[in-house]
Design brief:
The chain has about 160 residues and is mainly alpha-helical. It has helices at about 1-75, 100-105, 120-130, and strands at about 80-85, 85-90, 135-140, 145-150.
């Protein structure tokens, strides 16, 4: 009878170890599942944020493209506008006063040209020929003190 009891104790001990191992494995798998679930939720949140950012950038791009297209249409329809390395320019054949020309420019979110270097001076000369034109220099703030329309001093040289 002693042999049967010893066998029963051995089987019972093995089952206990097996149950403990199974329980520990279940705990480990549960922790790993929870960690993976947290990572998944974080990735889904990041994906949502990226989709929102992408949507905003797409709307911004579309708005810029629309503004560009409107500007190109305006420039195409207005033959007097032309583009160079220095920017966009408009040469009018109408004779107006300096103030009228300045107002015409500022109403179109532009201004009279400032010529602050030799390259731009040559550019103006080559594109206007012998025509008379107004440039963006004035002494209206203080007589005899010449400034460009952007507020910078005129440097003679």
């Amino acid at each position: 009878m002693i042999a049967v009891i010893a066998l029963c104790v051995c089987i019972h001990t093995k089952n206990t170890n097996c149950t403990e191992e199974s329980h520990q494995l279940l705990i480990n798998l549960t922790e790993e599942r929870d960690l993976l679930l947290t990572k998944y939720i974080n990735m889904m949140n990041e994906t949502t944020e990226l989709l929102i950012k992408n949507d905003n950038l797409t709307k911004q791009r579309d708005q810029f493209n629309q503004e560009r297209d409107q500007l190109q249409k305006f420039l195409t329809e207005t033959e007097a506008w032309f583009h160079s390395d220095f920017g966009f320019y408009f040469i009018s054949s109408l004779k107006k006063s300096w103030n009228e020309c300045r107002r015409y420019c500022t109403e179109r979110k532009a201004d009279l040209i400032t010529i602050k270097n030799k390259e731009k001076q040559d550019f103006v000369k080559n594109n206007t020929g012998e025509r008379q034109l107004w440039i963006g220099v004035t002494d209206e703030e203080k007589e005899g003190i010449w400034k460009w329309v952007d507020g910078t001093s005129v440097i003679s040289g």
